[in-house]
Amino acid sequence: MATVTSTARSLRNAGVVQLQNELQPYPVIDTVVTDEVVGSLKGHKFEPISLAKVEKLLTDPHSACLYDRHLHALNKVIKHYKNAFLLKDLVQVFKILNTCADRIDENEVYLEPLLDILKIVGKPFFKEKSSDETSYEQIAIQSISQLGYLMRCNEEAVQLQICATILSIYANTSPGNEVQKLCPCSYQFSRMIVENSDVSETLVKSLALIDGNLTVKLEVLHVLQELSKYSELTCAQMLAANAGSRVCQKMLDPDTTGLLLFRSTEILWNLLENGVHEELSRQLNDITCVSVLRDAFMQTLTTGFSTYDRQIRNDLLVLMTLVLAASSKSPFLETGLIKQLSLLATFQEIKTHNPFLKHFRIQTNPEDFEFKKLLINLVVVVSKQPINLHILSENRLLLALFHYVKSNTTNTGPQQWSPAQFEEIQLHAMSALCTLSPILIQDYMSCQGNTRLLLLLEWCVSSDDYAGHGNSFHGSGGRGNKRAQMRYCIRIIRAVVSTKDEAVLQDLVDQGTINQIMGILVSAANSSDVDDAIDIEMQSDMLIILSSLCEMDIHRKELFGSEGHGIDIVTHYLKMNPVKFTSGLGHHRLILATVDAVWCCVVGCYLTEDAFLAKEGVFLLLDLLENSPKSMHNLILGCLLDLCENSKTVPHIRVWRGKNDQSAAHLLCDIWRKEEHDLGVRRTDDGSLANTEKPLMGELQESQELQSMPASSPSQAIVDVVENMRAKIHALFCKIGYTELSGMSTEDYVTLTIIEQYLNLKMGEVWLEMMGELEIEQIRPVSPDQEALETMTRAITEDSKSVFLIQHDLLKAQNDQDLTDEKEFYAEIRENYKQKEKAINDWTEYVTRTSNHNVLKAAREKQEQSVEASRINVKHKPGTVLHKYEQPALNTTAYSGRNVLIESTPLHLTGGKLKDYDAKTGTVKFKETIIYE
């Protein structure tokens, strides 16, 4: 019975469990299907191997002689990494490369695997994640640097493959097969790691190791050429390795291909464009490099006839120009290159029998045209070294350049350039003459330079038809006209007259230059065309030429003022609108040249000065002084000061009135105050002296320590007189006087007190400096000199105190006057209020009388009493009949007559007169309003 029960219980439990299992849901298993299973991945599957084991196999001393196993392992690496290496594996890869490179000398079995691995390195590296480029950046840079160090291997094939690999990495052009789950690095990353590595510096240094192998040398130069083409960082690294000198010295090594000179020149040109000019010039500035450049230039000049050779020749000429311009001690003269270059520059224009130029020809092709301009530019650079001038003079350089100073309508010569080419060379030659003519002035005169220039200037202003091409930098603004030729013609004359050579100046005057230039300026002044920057520049230069010609000769000044043309010119420009000074076209230079022309061409000749005064020239100068910026004030004040030597000038200055009716004295005081403010001179708020011990000293002068100066050197107090305008203002007031000045305020008189005593205060400042220097030098004057110094010290102190007391009295008088004026003003206000109160009281009494009859009667009685009291008591004779003048019981206080004036309500209360009364409605139709101001 118990067994049956147990069995039944077991069956029941089993049924319950089965039922529960049936009720529970079946679990859902997600099936993960990868791209690899589906087959959607593109490319080969990457199967990496352990590079660390390969490295250990190669470096382990126990397996050092197992060459077959080494070769098998390396081939396995090449097979598995045939598409590219991973960024994270670069460390092991380059360890393997270094090991193979070191063992090539032991066994050549490593050569082929080394070349294959280098080819794979040239392919873009693979990255597993986007962040790998940032994470492995430094590792990649160091790996590329290791690639350059492999140039130590003596195998030519390895060195060539290294160069090819570097180019492949830098260009990132090697196409690779797609690999699953990997992505090649970007083009920017590949360039960046090459530029930031020191592979370029290593390649430059490796040139010494491959000196005897032309093939490898050309390939290394090719790599350096590509690396330096666009990268400033690479050029800086190459220059740090002295690339300029190394490449230049190997430029003329034996070469059967002709590529060595080309690649070397291209590298130097890239360093010039992307590197530091000064550093490249320093490296090329030695006798060896200059000699190589000379030989290379002469080789291409004499044996090269193709466009390719002519381009290299021009590039070498630019490099030599750069070296010459960078240093004044370049060894070009020692190598004889200066003489050869000057001969080339004058070859076409000057006949020569030099065998060096016997078979040389310059054609009209673009390269030779550029070569001609480069030669002209080079001689300008050569002329900056005085030691080269005698060579330029011997080869008659100026005569060759003056060949182009002629009208373009007569283009004849040994070489028939096209009109556009001739114009460009002409302007280039004239630009060079601006520099060369002043320093070769004797050659200039022997070439009759003045005559040539004046003839060309006459052609430029003539009506002959000529349409300029306006090409190049020098031809700007000259398209369709002759302005470019005229511009440089005037520039040459300006450069020549700036030498102050009397023979040149007299020759120009004798040929009528003054009248010719004044005629051009008169035409420009009367022209209605709008002037541009070139027109303004030419007018400024012509005024400067006139100033230089007339400065030291009264006869020339009279010639300038004859017929009034010169005076009309300067007054025309002095009337220029001050707004144009900041236009950016050069009007500020024009107005400065005008003031200088007044100073040099007018001042000093009484006839010309009188004509200038008659044209109100002083008024125009003062107007300019008022409206011009501070930088022009010094020149204008100097011109006015010298003009004041003519006694007729002072009345013009005294009667002048500017803006807001200010006088010249007030304007000068205002300029003085602004000048002292800029200098940092200490003054009180009211303009009086704040420091009587140093009344004129500014912040800069006060901050400088006193030093012992030799007698030939001016002290700081003397230099201060020249560096600011205070001395000129003091001298001007000495001319116009310190009294009877109109338009002056108290502040002006306070300033005028300092101006009047400026010379005494400045002398005291010099004495104090002298005594201070004696103390520094520890020199004790003898007793009489000591007493004199003490007397001067007291006099200096008394002068400063007297100025301060005068200023104090002026300010006190002004303060008292202000108080008096204030009292009078308030008294006037009180009087006005009394009158208003009286008017109000009178009106109140009037209203009261008219509205209250009793008040009117009382006022009448009071009036009668007043009238009676005002009469004189006269004793009348007995029997005299007296008649009363007043009407009795008259209810008015006004004196009656035939006409009665009735005072009505004031108009300002009614708003106007009443008009158009309507009798029907009893209203006013219209009321006129009167506005009281």
Automatic annotation (TrEMBL):
GO terms for cellular component: non-motile cilium; sperm midpiece. Pfam families: CFA69_ARM_rpt. This is CFAP69. PANTHER family: CILIA- AND FLAGELLA-ASSOCIATED PROTEIN 69 (PTHR14716). It comes from the Eukaryota. One of its GO terms (biological process) is positive regulation of flagellated sperm motility. Residues 50-769 form the Cilia- and flagella-associated protein 69 ARM repeats domain.
